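Table S2 (text version). Query chain:
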Amino acid sequence: MKKTKVVGGLLASAGVATVAGALWWRQQLKRPTETALLTNRDSLRQKEGWYFPSLQEELPMVIVIPEALVAGEAYSPWVSNLAKVGYPVFVLDSLLPSQAIKKAEAILRRFPHRSYILVGHGIGGELAATLANERLLTNDARLKGTIYLGALPLYGENLQSMALPALVVTGSQDKKTSGRISFQEKQLYPTNTTFVSINGGDHLGFVSVCGHRPKALPAQLQQKQLTEILLQWLEQV
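Corresponding structure-token output:
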């Protein structure tokens, strides 16, 4: 009887800790701007996140894994631009990073015949690399490439074995990547990787969130340049 009470108490404590952790993450979440929320109205709310559909069936679907503590709606200004030219886009709604890969896999099951590209911002880039590696191990020919926004490989994980095109976009004012990717760090990415730096850009300039104070380049201009960079790279994939 005592053992049952102890186990029950432990489970209850674990449940409280989980709820408390989720509440803490939600409180720390960087909220989207009004402009981002207005743009996000073009999307369809799905259980995995926000879907920006397209009628173009031959272009790959783009799956965006957000940075930790950044609301998915904050990506809508530049994501909507990709959808307008024909790329369907899914922005994951992942309050906890551990949920992101599961949600991405659920999307892939929903679209079993659609080619796709993984995009990750910050920690989302690390998760995108992990998921890409897992998909390659299953010989998933639908995966056409990976894009990293202000993201470094997780724990120095060597990704060179990935025979896929990749794009790395950083901001010169991004503290998380020291403004640029060093020669040693470049060796950790897939061999077929294109590196682009946005002059004056910073880590939160890839999204539209409240309270962001850019040091040089306004987020709107950074995302405009990002859109041009992404479209140019996507045309070559």
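Notes on Table S2: The helical segments are 2-28, 34-39, 76-84, 97-110, 123-137, 183-186, 219-234. The radius of gyration is 19 Å.
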